[in-house]
Design a protein that fits this description.
The structure is a homodimer.
Chain A: H1 3-33, H2 40-58, H3 61-72, H4 79-96, H5 100-123, H6 126-147, H7 153-161, H8 167-192, H9 206-219, E1 227-231, E2 237-241, E3 244-249, H10 256-274, H11 291-305, H12 309-322, H13 332-338, H14 356-372, H15 380-392, H16 418-437, H17 440-445, H18 450-459, H19 469-477, H20 484-495
Parallel strand pairs in A: 1-3
Antiparallel strand pairs in A: 2-3
Chain lengths: ~500, ~500
C-alpha cells in the first residue's frame, strides 16, 4: 500500500462515519424533541440496524491494517490525518472487542430504556425503569470486561469520558473540592436562607421566556444560520458539524432561572462546536477535546459570565422589559443574589454554583459503588436518598426529583457525571487566565462578548480534538490543570 | 434455495429498506422543518451517501435472483409477501438501469436544488434557481431514457406517480374536466366577486391559529401518540409507519384559510398512513395505494368535509371563540361562502375547490411541453404566465407567486401534479359512495368523524398497498373510477 492510497482510504472511512453519525444523531435528536411517543419502537430498530452497519464497515481486518500502516508511517502524515488515524485506532480497539450482536442490542436497549425512563420520571415510577437499568448495567459490565478484563469496569468508563482519568484521579480531585467547598457551604447556606428568590418562581409565560432565550443566544453571538434551538425534557447540545449545531432547552412557567441558565449553558457547548477550525469539518475532530473540556465551556458561559454581577446587571433591564409586572420591584442586585443563592436542593440542573459539585460527587460515589459491586440497581433509590441526606441534608420526596432526575443512566452513560465538576474547575482556571489577558468583566457589563468569544476560540474552540486537554490547558493558561482556581473562585464569590 | 430461506432473505432486505428510508426521511424532514440554513451541505452529502448504500445493498444479482425466484413460486407466498416481492421487482427494474454514481449525484442535487429554490422563492429570483432546475431536467430525461428508451420521458414519470396513467389517459381525464368545469367557472367566478372574504385576510395571531389547528386534528381523531405536527415553508406529510406520522403546516398571520385548510388537507394524508392495517407495518406496503389515492384522502377531508356547509357551521363558534373580535360580525353562512368563493387566483395551494383543477392542468401542460422538447427551462416563467393568463385571466406579478410557488420541481417530481386533480375526482366518487352507506353529512354537522373515518379505513386506508387503486375503487364504490362524480359534485355545489 502507498501512503496516498492509505490516506484516501482513511478519508473514505471518515466520510462513512460522518454520514452514519449524522443519520443516527438526527434520529436521536428527533426522538428527544419532535417525535410522537409511539415512534420509539421503529427508531430503536433503525438505530440498532445502523449501528450494525457502522460496526461492519469499521471493524474488520482492512481497517485494522490500514490504521496500523498509517500510524507506522506517521511522519508522512499531516497533523489532522495523524489525529484521525490515532482516534480511529482508539475507537477500533474500544469497539472491536465487543461482539457486533451485543453492540446492536445495546443500541436498541438504549433507545427503549430512554423511552421508559422518560415515562418513569413523569410518573415517579422507578420500578418500571429498574429492569431496563439493570440490563444496561449488565451490558456495561460485560463490555468493560471484554475491553479490559484487568481494569475495574468503572475505571474503563471514566477513561472513556475523560481520557487518562481514573478513580484515583477523581478521588484526589474531589477531596480538594470537599476540603474547600464543604466548610464554605456550611457557612453560606444558612446565610443564604435570607435571600429572596421567590420572585423567580412566580408565573413567567413560556412564549415570553422563549423571547428571552432568543435574546441570550444573540448576546452570545451564536450564528443563527448554523445553529437551531428546540425543546426537550432534558436540555442537551448536539453538534453535527460547525455548520449545524442544535441545542435544546426546557421551559417551566414557574421557574425563570431554569430555561434562562439552560440556554446559556447549552449555548456555551454550542459555541465550542461552532467555532472549531474550518479545516476540521468532516474529519470527526470537529468537536470538544474531552467532555471535561466541553463542560468547561458550558459552565464558563453559564456561571463565570451568566451568574456574574456584570452580566446580571446588564440583562436585568431586558428581563424587566419582558416581564414588567413580575420584575416591577426586582432590582439588579436582588436578581444577582437570587440566581446565586446557595441552597441545599434536590435537583442537580437547578443547583446553584456552590452546591453543584456536591450533586456531582454524590453521583460519582453511587456509580463507583454500583460498579464495584457494593450495591445493586434495586438499591439505587435508597442509596441516592441517603447520600442526599448525608451531603446536603435534604431527602427527595419522590424518585422523580431523586434517582430518576437525570437522563444519563438510561443511555448507559456511567462515568459521565464527574466531568461536570471537572469542567467547572477548568472553567474557573480559564477565566483566571482570560482575566490576565484583558478586562473581560468590563466587556460583559456592556453585554459585549466578542472579545470573550474570540479568546475562547483562539485558546480552546478552534483546536477541536487536534490538541489534547492537557495541551490546551498549557496553551491557554501556561500551566497544567489545577483545581485550586475553582476553589479560590468560589471562596471569593461566596465570602462576599 | 428453499422458499422459507428466500422469504427470510426478503424480510432482511425489507428491514434494510425500512431502516434506510427512516434515516433518510428524518434527515429530509429535519431539513424542511428545524435545520439551520448552513446545514444543507452536509445533509446533501449524507443523503447522497445513504442513497448509495441503499443502491448497493439492493441492486445486485442476489436481489435480482431472489425476486425472480419468489415470483416464480408465488403460489407459496402469502398475499403480503407476494406484494412485497412484486413491488420489489418493480423498484429493482426502475433503479437498476440507472448507474449508481448518477443515482447518488441526483440525490445530492435534489437536496441542493431544494435549498436554492427556497431562497429563490423568498427573493423572487428565478435566475438563481434556473441552472439547478436545468440540471434536474437533464438528469430526469437521462433517467427516463435509461429506464425505457421506447417511451416518452413524461409518460415514464406519469406512470411512476400513478401506475398505468399516460398522457393519453390524463388528456382524456382533463378534457372531461375542461368540458364541465370551464363553463361553470365562467359563470361562477363573476358571481363570486360579490362574496366578501376580506375578513379572512385580517390579522389572526399565529399562536391562536396553532390552537385552531390543534382543534382540527382532534376533530379528525388523529392519534396524538402516533403523529406530530411541525411547520415548514411548504406543507407536507411524511409517514414513517403507522406509529410515526408527521405533517407540517404554514401559518400566515394575514390569512386564516391557509393553515386551516393545510392542516385538514395534510391531516387527511396522515389518517391514511395511520390507519393502514397493523400487519403491514415494516413491510413497505404501509402507505397509500397510489399518489392519486393518497390525494383523494387529503382532498376528501379538505373539501368534502372541511369546505362543506355542515363542517363550516360546526367549526364556526370555535373560530369565533378564538378570534372574538375578528369574527364578531361573521356569520356561519358568511364563513362558508368566504371559504368557497370561486376566484381566479395565482397560487394553487390557496385556490378554491372549483378553480383548483385548472391550476393543476396548467402544470400538466407545461411539464408535457418541457419534456416533449417544446420549451426549455429558461422559458418556464414566460410560459407559466401565459398559461395563467389564458386559463384564469390573471398574470403573476412576480415568479414567487408564479413559476416558483411549488416545491415539486426542485425535487425532480415531474408528473406528480396531475395526481392532485385525479385525487379530487376520486374523493368525490368516494364521498358519493359513503353517502349511500350512511348520512355522513349529519355526522359532520355534529363534528363527529368517527363513522367517516371508520368507513374510509375499511374501504381505503387499511389496505395500504395490498390492493391496487382499481381494486380499491371497485371495493369502495362497486364500480371503476369515473370523473363524472367530481363534475356533478362541483356543478351541484357551485350552481347553488
Amino acid at each position: 500500500m502507498k501512503i496516498d492510497e492509505a490516506i484516501g482510504k482513511l478519508k473514505e472511512l471518515q466520510a462513512r462515519q460522518v454520514a452514519y453519525n449524522q443519520a443516527m444523531s438526527m434520529l436521536s435528536f428527533d426522538g428527544s424533541t419532535s417525535a410522537p411517543k409511539n415512534s420509539f419502537e421503529c427508531r430503536g430498530r433503525t438505530l440498532s440496524f445502523l449501528s450494525g452497519e457502522v460496526y461492519k464497515s469499521f471493524i474488520n481486518k482492512e481497517t485494522d491494517d490500514l490504521l496500523n500502516y498509517l500510524l507506522e508511517n506517521k511522519d508522512s502524515l499531516d497533523q489532522i490525518t495523524f489525529r484521525i488515524a490515532e482516534e480511529g485506532r482508539e475507537e477500533f480497539d474500544k469497539i472491536s472487542r465487543i461482539p457486533m450482536q451485543e453492540f446492536m442490542e445495546f443500541m436498541q436497549l438504549q433507545n427503549d430504556a430512554n423511552h421508559v425512563w422518560e415515562t418513569a420520571k413523569l410518573s415517579n415510577d422507578f420500578a418500571s425503569f429498574e429492569p431496563y437499568l439493570a440490563k444496561i448495567v449488565d451490558f456495561k459490565k460485560r463490555f468493560a470486561n471484554y475491553r479490559d478484563p484487568q481494569k475495574k469496569p468503572y475505571n474503563v468508563f471514566l477513561d472513556d469520558f475523560e481520557k487518562g482519568y481514573s478513580m484515583d484521579d477523581y478521588d484526589a480531585f474531589f477531596s480538594v473540592l470537599k476540603e474547600n467547598i464543604v466548610p464554605l457551604i456550611h457557612e453560606a447556606v444558612p446565610r443564604g436562607k435570607s435571600i429572596n428568590d421567590g420572585f423567580m418562581k412566580i408565573s413567567y409565560p413560556v412564549d415570553k421566556q422563549r423571547l428571552l432565550s432568543k435574546k441570550l443566544v444573540s448576546i452570545m453571538r451564536l450564528d443563527p444560520d448554523s445553529f437551531a434551538m428546540a425543546e426537550s425534557e432534558h436540555p442537551f447540545t448536539m453538534g453535527i458539524n460547525k455548520k449545524d449545531v442544535r441545542f435544546t432547552t426546557h421551559y417551566y412557567e414557574n421557574n425563570l432561572a431554569s430555561a434562562f441558565y439552560s440556554t446559556i449553558h447549552e449555548g456555551g457547548h454550542a459555541l465550542y462546536e461552532l467555532n472549531t477550525a474550518d479545516e476540521l469539518i468532516y474529519t470527526g475532530l470537529d468537536s470538544g477535546a474531552s467532555l471535561g473540556m466541553h463542560e468547561s465551556q458550558s459552565r464558563f458561559y453559564e456561571n463565570m459570565i451568566g451568574r456574574s454581577r456584570e452580566f446580571t446587571s446588564y440583562i436585568h433591564p431586558h428581563i424587566r422589559g419582558l416581564f414588567p409586572s413580575q420584575f416591577a420591584d426586582v432590582t439588579a442586585d436582588a436578581f444577582y443574589r437570587a440566581v446565586n443563592k446557595p441552597e441545599a436542593t434536590l435537583v442537580r440542573v437547578e443547583a446553584d454554583e456552590l452546591t453543584y459539585s456536591l450533586h456531582v460527587m454524590i453521583r460519582y460515589e453511587i456509580e463507583r459503588m454500583l460498579f464495584n459491586g457494593d450495591i445493586n440497581v434495586a438499591a439505587l433509590p435508597g442509596t441516592w436518598n441517603e447520600k442526599y441526606r448525608e451531603y446536603l441534608g435534604v431527602t427527595p420526596p419522590d424518585d422523580s426529583t431523586g434517582v430518576l432526575q437525570d437522563v444519563h443512566w438510561s443511555e448507559g452513560m456511567f462515568g459521565y457525571f464527574p466531568t461536570y465538576a471537572l469542567g467547572s474547575a477548568i472553567a474557573a482556571q480559564l477565566a483566571a487566565s482570560m482575566g490576565k489577558a484583558f478586562d473581560y468583566k468590563s466587556d460583559v457589563s456592556q453585554g459585549d462578548l466578542s472579545r470573550v468569544n474570540a479568546w475562547m476560540t483562539d485558546k480552546v474552540h478552534r483546536h477541536g480534538q487536534l490538541l489534547k486537554p492537557k495541551e490546551i490547558m498549557e496553551f491557554a493558561c501556561g500551566e497544567p490543570f489545577n483545581p485550586r482556581y475553582y476553589c479560590g473562585y468560589l471562596i471569593s464569590k461566596y465570602s462576599e
